[in-house]
C-alpha cells in the first residue's frame, strides 16, 4: 500500500488539503463538481482548518463541491453537540461557501434506516461516485464505523459500535454510557468505490493499528487491512504513527 510519511501531522494535513484544493480547482475548470467523502474525528481537523484558510485567503470556492460524510451516530439529533452534522459545521461548513443542498451526512434520525441507507448509496452513484474519500482509523482498525467483522462488499448500513470505539468516544459524551450503541456508516464496499482513498493517522497511539493495517494479512479483524486490496488507496502518516512499520 502506498505510504507517505511526514514529520508532523500539520505538514501531512497541509499536503492533503492541497490535493483536495487542486481537485476542486481542476473540476471547476472542466465545469464539473468535485464529489468529496469526508470523515470526522480528531484526525481530519487540521485538514479542514487548512481548507477554511484556503477559502478565506486564497479564493478556494466550495460552490461546486458536493460532500458525503462517512458516518453518523444512531440515534443522533443533528442539532446535538456530539453529532457529526455539528462537527462538520463547526470545523468546515460554517466557514466556507458550500451550498446546503450539496451536503450529505447520514441521518441519525432516519425512521426507515434501511431505506435511508439504500438512498445514500444511490445518491453517491448519481453523482458518479466519490472523487476522494478521506479516512481516519480507529484503534479497532475500523474505517468509517466498519468494525471488525465487516464484510469487504458491505454497503451503507446500521452497525453496532465496538466497546473500544465507544470508550474512545466517551470523552465527547461525558461517559461511555452516553455514547450511542449504533451508527450509520458507509460500508467497506462504498469506500472502495471512491476513485482515491486517503487514510490519515497521527500520533503514537495509532502506530500499532497502522502497523496491523499495513503489514498483517488482509482480514476482517482489522477492517482497514482491506485497503491493501485497493489499487487507489494510500496512507498518509506522521512520523509517530509510522514508527512501528518495518
Ligand atoms: C469518523 C470515522 C472514524 C474515525 C476514527 C478515528 O467519521 O469514521 O473511523 O476516523 O474513529 O478517529 P480519530 O480521528 O478521532 O482518532
Automatic annotation (TrEMBL):
<feature type="domain" description="Glucosamine/galactosamine-6-phosphate isomerase">
    <location>
        <begin position="8"/>
        <end position="229"/>
    </location>
</feature>
<protein>
    <recommendedName>
        <fullName>Glucosamine-6-phosphate deaminase</fullName>
    </recommendedName>
</protein>
